[in-house]
Amino acid sequence: EVQLVESGGGLVQPGGSLRLSCAASGFTFSSYEMNWVRQAPGKGLEWVSYISSSGSTIYYADSVKGRFTISRDNAKNSLYLQMNSLRAEDTAVYYCARVNAYSGSYFDYWGQGTLVTVSS
Amino acid sequence: DIQMTQSPSSLSASVGDRVTITCQASQDISNYLNWYQQKPGKAPKLLIYDASNLETGVPSRFSGSGSGTDFTFTISSLQPEDIATYYCQQYDNLPPRVTFGGGTKVEIK
Question: What is the CA radius of gyration of chain A?
Answer without folding.
Answer: 13
